[in-house]
Amino acid sequence: MDSKKAQEISSSSVMANVTYNGKQIYIEHVDQQKGMATIHPLDEPSKKETVSVTNLIEQ
């Protein structure tokens, strides 16, 4: 995924089906300049991590 698409998904009111390492995630924030996103698994909201947007997959 690219930074622009990740930002669109993050800003949308519609929940997108996005995965990271095979787990469904929620995108909290996107830093488009760095190409990084703050995410958490849908089933673990307190487990936040920052990852490259290129590792996010929209299903």
UniProtKB/TrEMBL annotation:
Compartments where located: Spore core
Keywords assigned: Sporulation
Induction cue: Expressed only in the forespore compartment of sporulating cells.
Region (Disordered): 38-59
Bias (Basic and acidic residues) ranges: 41-50
Coiled-coil portions: none
Domain of life: Bacteria
Annotated Pfam families: SspH
Chief location bin: other
Similarity field: Belongs to the SspH family.
NCBIfam families: PRK03174.1, SASP_H
Entry protein name: Small, acid-soluble spore protein H
Lineage of origin: Bacteria, Bacillati, Bacillota, Bacilli, Bacillales
